[in-house]
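Lab notebook, page 48
Experiment: co-folding of the full assembly
Goal: obtain a model of how the components sit together before planning crosslinking
Operator: M.T.
Materials (sequences as entered):
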Amino acid sequence: MLVAAGVAGLVVAMSLMIVRAMIGPSHYDRILAANSFGTKTVLLIALMGFLFGRPDFLDIALVYALINFVTTIALMKFFRYRTLARPLGAMAREAGKDG
Amino acid sequence: MSGPTIDANFALNIALLLMLVAIAFAVVRTRSLLAAILMMSVYSLASAAWLMVADAADVAFTEAVVGAGASTVILLGAILLARGEAERVNWKLMIAPGALAVVVGAVLIYAAGGLPNYGDPASPANSHVGRAYLEQTYGDIGAPNVVTAVLASYRGFDTLGETVVIFAACIGVALMLGFGPRATLAPPTEIPNDQHVVLRVVAKLLIPLIALFALYVQFHGDLGAGGGFQAGVIMAVAIILHALVFGLRATMAAVPVRLARTVAALGVVVYAGVGVVCIINGGGFLDYDYLFSPRIEAMIPANLLGDPSHEHHWGQHFGILFIEIGVLLTVSATIVTMFYGFAGRTLETIEAERRG
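Observation: model returned without errors.
Model output:
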């Protein structure tokens, strides 16, 4: 019952995230909503694994967490630098001419 | 399953499908391409969650890694080469395609009424071929994951075709984007003075773990969800993360473009090579029972995979393993080539300017 309530709460939270991603208004809101939606998907799948008695769902939850991290970095990098090619951080100043 | 579980399943189905409809409308409505890509990434996550509810773990896996991971990053690279907003289309031009979409949708909904119930054991798909696969797979092949067994062994020829299609995509992207600079969206002139220490350290920690996870998915494919396709994309995502954080130049030094293209071809060769070896040993193409000659098969220790009393199908086991490695090579190299093709444009522009 507790797990089912958790799933229901997550579904509500995911719906709210979709609303935020739709109405924006800025791209930052959308990125935050998308990232948060991904986190909630990870939780949902982990909980579903318990609900349906399938602990191997955790493998898939794990892959979502990893993928979501990479996607968010790509989005933020695109947003700040308008390129995916340039290195981030200290190396950026040395090789800053890379574009 | 008990009563409440089925109800929860049904409610989850409805909730996730409604979410998918809402996101699809939002993607169509927005004119900002960045917002559209974001919503499509959310769409992939939601549809993958729904596929998990439908108990299609392998498909959900693919949807998550391809839809939410690789394609989002590649699409971001693509809008670097385009303007950030879709053009406003005159509504009169939308009438005919809109009407067509409505008609096709109505036909599909009408046809859906004739489909057998979800999970109906008497449906054609479950009563003939599907049941035969479920009953015979463990005896024929010895792989617990029937999806992998069907994909890699029973229908190995189809999967070879799919791998070739992916390789063709690699060639297409390399031909279209691999030559000549054509960037249109200039990077900001002043470079922000960011450190990103946390990001760099976390990425350094995470890249080997993602690669390790890809290998786990690869070698666990015949036991649980996953296989060469998913593992290949996860491996490519690890390389993409390296490029995002440490720069494309550093990544191209580690994984050169030429290497990526070679590996993409090599994967197809490995896959088809397994089939040819089966022919040489007296079987049909991709008939893994003939992968090893009896002399080699006798050399495999019986306790290689634990339990020696259980009868193993070594040819099937290693055949699936080898072709999955071929798939992994082609898929990962193709995704990396695509990423290089899109993300490398601005870098190539500057290189070309320096040379010229």
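Interpretation: Chain B has two domains: 1-115, 143-187+196-303+311-356.
Next step: discuss with group before ordering constructs.
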